Amino acid sequence: MARSCTWSVFRVKDEQRAELSATDFRSDTMSLYRNSAWFLKGMTEFTRSAFLTASKLFVEKDLEVAMAGRSFMITGANSGIGRATAMAIAKRGGTIHMVCRNKDKAEEARADIVKETGNKEVYVHILDMSETKKVGEFAEGFKRKYKALNVLINNAGSIMSQRDVNAEGLEKSFATNVLGIYILTKSLIPLLEKSADPRVITVSSGGMLVQKLRTGNLQSDRGRYDGTMVYAQHKRQQVVMTEQLAKTHTNIHFSVMHPGWVDTPAVANAMPDFHRSMKDSLRTPEQGADTAVWLAVSEAAITNPSGRFYQDRKMVSTHLPLAWTHSSPLEEQELMSLIEDLAKTFQPH
Ligand SMILES: NC(=O)c1ccc[n+]([C@@H]2O[C@H](COP(=O)([O-])OP(=O)(O)OC[C@H]3O[C@@H](n4cnc5c(N)ncnc54)[C@H](OP(=O)(O)O)[C@@H]3O)[C@@H](O)[C@H]2O)c1
């Protein structure tokens, strides 16, 4: 009896091992497939030359619009895509609220925008999006001070090389890329809803195509911390969050977009090898910002349904073919409930 028990334990272990290695093999093969399919897609669609090809179909007059009297909040507006977006909208006369974490960098970018566009309606607000409580406090203060906000552009994003937590004990890139965006957006919804033609645009990434939505490890505190994959998961969560918010807030036009591969400090710092090898093929920040600007200002953008994912001014699929990254409505609801619960915990009093 004892012997047979011992054998059965070994048999179970062997079966588990076989099961585990089969799972690992399937998951490694799937990752390899997703990463290869994504890279091939990137080489044909995300580069500067792909932008130049796509832009041949752009309707020029879509961006020939006057934005005076409309206000735009842009997070991470001091650098890269966010700065180029702020510049393009300021050129069209829009009031710009730059939400940045570094005062010196923000003031320098503001001075450049004012100088280049002649538009003085450019305001700096200092906020670190990874500081969860402060995000809610900032949004409440903004609502008290301003009567309108027409467009919110959630652009700030970060990739961390190692796991770090904020004062609230939350993993910092999750706090910045997911929870901060959720709190800022949800808190500003009443103000957006009072304003004409309200829109919310989130700058996600095509990198999310390699990730299936996961809700079981939001704080990335289990397993090895791979900053790039954690970031890609957050970008997937942004897509799901946008789809879900669009369903519940039908007065606002939501969209989420991929800017392509763009030469910015984020890429140079977080992915130095990729940056070095792709440097000549990367888009300029202006090219990377084009779709965000189009979504923020054009009439054409709001003729499309709310909640969609864009690349080069076109609605595109949120999944690679055969990549098994689709999630169920239950999983999507679960993400929203978990984020909503976290947001409630850190609500300003
Ligand atoms: N570049 C690409 O190829 C690419 C591709 C796909 C998606 N994206 C997305 O595009 C967006 C803009 O990135 P980028 O490429 O333009 O890089 P970037 O030039 O480095 O700009 C990132 C901006 O986000 C700000 N930021 C980061 N963490 C923040 C925080 N906790 N609080 C407030 N602001 C914060 C940065 O502030 P500091 O200047 O103070 O650091 C900076 O202003 C990001 O969401 C990124 O994920 C970029």
From TrEMBL:
Database matches in Pfam families: adh_short
InterPro entries assigned to the protein according to its UniProt record, in alphabetical order: NAD(P)-bd_dom_sf, SDR_fam, SDR_member_12
SUPFAM superfamilies given in the database record: NAD(P)-binding Rossmann-fold domains (SSF51735)
Alphabetized PANTHER family for the sequence: DEHYDROGENASE/REDUCTASE SDR FAMILY MEMBER 12 (PTHR44656), SHORT CHAIN DEHYDROGENASE_REDUCTASE (PTHR44656:SF2)
Name of the protein: Putative dehydrogenase/reductase SDR family member 12-like
